[in-house]
Hints:
Blueprint: H1 7-15, H2 24-43, H3 49-60, E1 62-67, H4 70-81, H5 87-93, E2 99-105, E3 117-122, H6 131-143, E4 152-155, H7 162-175, H8 178-192, H9 197-206, H10 213-223, E5 228-236, H11 239-246, E6 261-269, H12 271-276, H13 291-299, E7 310-313, E8 329-337, E9 340-346
Parallel strand pairs: 1-3
Antiparallel strand pairs: 2-3, 2-4, 5-6, 5-9, 7-8, 8-9
Helix pairs in contact: 1-2, 2-7, 4-5, 6-7, 8-9, 9-10
Amino acid sequence: MNLNRESDVVRLANTLGICGHPRPADAIVEYCLGRVDGWIKEIGGVDSLSQLERLVCNKLRLKFEYIESDADYGRVLMAYLEKGEQVIQGLLDQLDSATFGAVFERRHYGSKDRDRYVAVIDCRGKKGRRRFFTKWHEIAHILTLKHQLELIFLRDTKVKKPEEQLMDLIAGRVGFYPAIFKRGFLAELNAYGRFDFGLVQRVRDNVCSEASYESALQACLNVCEIPCLLVRVSYGLSKAEQESVADPQTTFLPEKQPIPVLRAVSTQGNEAAQKSGLHLHRNMRVPPGSHLYRAFQEHGVHVDNSGKVRRESLSIWEHSDGSCLAAREVTIYTRMHGGTLLALLVDEREA
């Protein structure tokens, strides 16, 4: 989905005074960063992401309430019922297994109250891993608010509305505020010596401890100036096979059903990779001679390869038409994530 072409995103940009911009989604992100830039300059700078969060929440008059247990549920419910905020009952009732958070505007707040807006974050069970990102998603809603706030729920759905995807984009950029995060990332990189999954863990522990590992990995990829690809390897079908299976007019005999093979089911390069031409196409078949192939197979016998350093030439990777990628040596680091192999392909010669 190209958010810059979505009508909801264009409408929001117009509401914010960003009219006629060729890339409205990107302009909205920059608008949010610009607001935060101004607040940081007012106080002479901030040193950490946690300090940034406090500053932004103070400026927005936003308060977080965390639900980590049934006791927290009761505490939050009674606290806001006593303030006359009847909406809290319905809001808390909506915190089901698919809902991570919600934000509302208080109807009974005074000029001295610091909690004009209240975001309830559900941290129970596995939801706790998304605590950091859920908070910044709710902050994004208030950063882009121009009219009275309607009750907004953040649900974990596979197909999110364009505006919710935009809020995720803002959360990823503002929550990992570039100047602050990059400073911490570079300090850890200089101390550790290389960009691999171990570095991501160090960055998460020391720079953004509330963030999930996946969010920290994405943020590290974004700021790293070394050409790098993040590849997810799993069994899948080619694009043509997927289209054939999805076509209701196409029928297969059982013995002729397409067979999933090991593929690069998703690939993402950072800005340095894009500039240098380092790439793998999505759904490329992983060649048996690749370290990615062996690392995936070795996982079946419980071999931990996360600490291994491997190198290979991309010339062993073939397109479906038989042509090969250009010869380019990369360093490969792998890590299993559930049933998926994550791989970092790094061109360390350009480091």
